[in-house]
Fold this sequence. Notes:
4 copies of one chain form a homotetramer. The first copy, chain A, has about 325 residues and is an alpha+beta fold. Chain A is about 15% helix and about 35% strand.
Amino acid sequence: MRPLWAVLSDALTPEPRVRSVPHIWHWRDVRPRILRAGALVTAEEAERRVLMLVNPGLDGRPAATATLFAGIQLILPGEVARTHHHTPTAVRFIIEGEGGYTTVSGEKGPMRKGDYLTTPNWTWHDHGNEGAQPVMWLDGLDIPFVTNLDAIFYEEFGEERQPVVKSVNDSIRRWGSNLKPSWETPEGSYSPILNYRWETSRAALHGLRGDKGSPFDGIIMEYINPYNGGPTVPTMAAYLQLLRQGEHTHAHRHVASTVYHVAEGGGYSVVGGRRFDWEEGDTFVVPAWTWHEHAAEQGEAVLFSFSDRPILRAFGLDREEALAAGRQG
Amino acid sequence: MRPLWAVLSDALTPEPRVRSVPHIWHWRDVRPRILRAGALVTAEEAERRVLMLVNPGLDGRPAATATLFAGIQLILPGEVARTHHHTPTAVRFIIEGEGGYTTVSGEKGPMRKGDYLTTPNWTWHDHGNEGAQPVMWLDGLDIPFVTNLDAIFYEEFGEERQPVVKSVNDSIRRWGSNLKPSWETPEGSYSPILNYRWETSRAALHGLRGDKGSPFDGIIMEYINPYNGGPTVPTMAAYLQLLRQGEHTHAHRHVASTVYHVAEGGGYSVVGGRRFDWEEGDTFVVPAWTWHEHAAEQGEAVLFSFSDRPILRAFGLDREEALAAGRQG
Amino acid sequence: MRPLWAVLSDALTPEPRVRSVPHIWHWRDVRPRILRAGALVTAEEAERRVLMLVNPGLDGRPAATATLFAGIQLILPGEVARTHHHTPTAVRFIIEGEGGYTTVSGEKGPMRKGDYLTTPNWTWHDHGNEGAQPVMWLDGLDIPFVTNLDAIFYEEFGEERQPVVKSVNDSIRRWGSNLKPSWETPEGSYSPILNYRWETSRAALHGLRGDKGSPFDGIIMEYINPYNGGPTVPTMAAYLQLLRQGEHTHAHRHVASTVYHVAEGGGYSVVGGRRFDWEEGDTFVVPAWTWHEHAAEQGEAVLFSFSDRPILRAFGLDREEALAAGRQG
Amino acid sequence: MRPLWAVLSDALTPEPRVRSVPHIWHWRDVRPRILRAGALVTAEEAERRVLMLVNPGLDGRPAATATLFAGIQLILPGEVARTHHHTPTAVRFIIEGEGGYTTVSGEKGPMRKGDYLTTPNWTWHDHGNEGAQPVMWLDGLDIPFVTNLDAIFYEEFGEERQPVVKSVNDSIRRWGSNLKPSWETPEGSYSPILNYRWETSRAALHGLRGDKGSPFDGIIMEYINPYNGGPTVPTMAAYLQLLRQGEHTHAHRHVASTVYHVAEGGGYSVVGGRRFDWEEGDTFVVPAWTWHEHAAEQGEAVLFSFSDRPILRAFGLDREEALAAGRQG
């Protein structure tokens, strides 16, 4: 037993005391390191060969923000990352390579540059590379969130690859065209679509380029679960956003924390007063309640991002504020 | 005041006493008549030039089943069916013609053969034909249902055409690819998509042709509202179904009543013990709680249909029963 | 096939063309007739000894409004109205008598003056009278609505009384105090509470007498389903409203049609321009889209009512309008 | 950047690695200490005079489990704990004293022994004691959970007491009897009821004493939000449970962590293999995924508890397992 009053002003602060900090990981630095990791450890030894993007403010914990994990995963030609499942949910955005795949719940989904895939809570999954080049992608998971709930469970499947019982693109054929098969009902509260393909998503984004869009994010679209219209997985929202040439958005902040990845082009963001220049392949983080704005002054850019917004919204805890001055100093 | 006991067995029957009857309207009969109507009355005079498919069991009421209206609408080249709105909701399936369009809530949507469009409750809409040939489609409305609720409202816009304030395919670009624009929220409880295009829907249907599908309906898909995963409009569900060559489904019955339209191919259905042969363009009706089975023994067929299932489901009133014998004698 | 344009202005009217009319059934007329019915027919012969309150505008159909049935039921001492179930849902408001009961799904619920009970879709139910005096109540059902959907099913249980497997007041003990038993989940989409007791409901109503309340209805409360906060049954909303001495509400109209029953006191309502004076035991009807206002100028009054509002709301079809002049001429 | 494979088996464990431990705080120890605190610090100095029940496994963090805070609050006669609000939500269970009150959103609610009150996210609240004796209660908050989301906001009202704009028991009168006022809609996603009164709740619990109840918890009821049937606040579920004389429940475990408080009687629980004897006023904690069983072998007991179950359920993360052996060794 301890007195609350000694710590109350520390526990209940006027605004969140956010420990994670704005940070960027440049692909020019990340790529050689993850490839070097490929030489040092096999996929089998590693279980998952992932370099974690550890937030410098979080004392080495495997976390990019208070709730989100981010990492870069590599699968070399011929390798398999064996089948397991866990309660944390993963989202993945493919950075480089041809011939990669993820099998989730019996469906083998090809992974091509720009594709967005999900691996929901407790679904069996394994990855492989049937191509001739390394395959690399961004992994986003809610590990810190699930860990803080004392809700981590993990299990191995027992065989390297799970049986593939569905045909390629099965889920996109069932659910990808605003129709649904009437004779079946998806299980779970996550999107029945395994792979949101880059060409489709990118075309959708460019289709709205004539719109005004969001003052804070330009043309920004959220990947949705066609079975309920919500986010693709219950804990994380994923977005694709187009910054048009010369666009410089207004600054805002929200409680939801976000990991951004540069899918195309270059530009910069001002996050918490610091400028981060970015180009294709870079990953950066905007912590909770931190001012941020984006600029693509030299050419167009497309950003992928994922955030913990659905968690906050479930409990009325998200807030958003526009910067009165429009942009940070 | 009257005694219930004199009418109780009449009011509370063991099974529904359905007055609408199975019936088919052949396109070879319908087409010349609706074209003749085009010669007799202008679109302006008619407000809507529609031949109603009146169920013979319903005493001439404008109804195909107890809850659903069906009709065939014609717009001649250069004509406009002026802007109005009403509380009944319409679904439309395009049968023939090029150059037709419907404008709903400021979006002008092209109507091509096989397209499925919706005109929800109280949305302004006008139709036109900018092509060189007659444009004809199937109209499905919940007029009998809304009438029975004493909830009919109708209003004219005042101008022939409403202003078009959105670009062509605006809604499919916003909502058609399993992403949604983050900066806006659709109004209403209906699908934000105006036009479900035939080439997309047909491809989705054929994409599942390797599935077993439903024993009663073959490969059947429901058009869905991407904003909530439900039917495209609150009162009616719309489907597209593929009957593969040689397929003859099992018989079942359900409380939901259905209007079918032959989108492609030919075959027959046995409805309430009677065989109805059909070919492209035909429309037939399966009343509530009536056994029905479908056959495409000569070649493939695609059926479009709409039903009042969402109304029944909203109140726990739908039931489905499989015929023990498999098929009707 | 028939031309829509010949009937379009008849089918799609600017406002609903409501056939049911405002009407009142005075208890002083109803009571002797239902008692006389008790002398003419036994409960066994009648299945249910109910005098229907037939709306004069509806050509003798068993309906009080387009969607709602209302009737007065009598059970004499020692009688049993045998067990059956049907897809129409019933609500009941007890008018007179001691010793009546309804058994629903194995729970036997006492029926006392002012109690509100429900008998949802397809639940087995039987009634009886274990007292020494006639028991009479108002029955409200969605029979016209369910009939119009071709969804009537009816079945007899086979025994006069169903087994009573729950203790008296079982459901109110489980669900009546804003707590719920954690080890069970109610079936169905209707309230788990069988009997909303008069003393509780009346006390709640009087507890808010200091409020301003609704300008159109005074202190009006809706009976709710504690499992989901919605109406007690999916198709009908039921209300209790207090008109304080001297209160004369403003006129409004809405698409929802309503059957009112005077639970206590006297006053009058102006419905569709006609004044209806009422006193305890009277039942009157406000059809869809009809102006109505209530007055309790001599003393306090409590009105019970039920309406089809949940049906209209499910499809965005309810509308409400206040009379600009405040009250009808 | 750091290698995931070095920490993967640490991050993704087969079962949760729970750091909080089973623990009990006896009222005989707590009471003198909180009273001593009353002598050492004023309510004004303390902002809130609360002794935290700090879990020994959590390194001194203000937390009873990974997600839940528990504390004992004292208000002395005449004192006021001034008005503030914060994003963490509080639930309160009154232990001792007469004359205490909490004002939430303008409603002043009396606090009597056994009452359950809520103070949802961002609602203004102040406490006071208008009696002659100390008032003490158990505070439960989701502070650790909200802190882990970087979502703490806190603000002072500026005046000691907020204006009381509603009458005593306003919310229970509006919402406590399974009716709701039709002219208003509650704001927020929490229960509109401020105070769940002991006499009502206890009577409900005893009303089900004849039931079999839950094998793991006896007669256990959850306080519910009458507006939606869910828990009283979005993040925490609160329960009252009756252990009948001689009852010894089966052991189970679940991911949801729970803080228990003994409202009446005595007995013991076996938690994680350790026996904790308890009597009225004691508080004990069952961490996530920890076996627990309860026994009231000498007489009856009533336990109040609150848990983070709604958080886990929102994301499909709760699991429950029965101990095969029935009870722990």
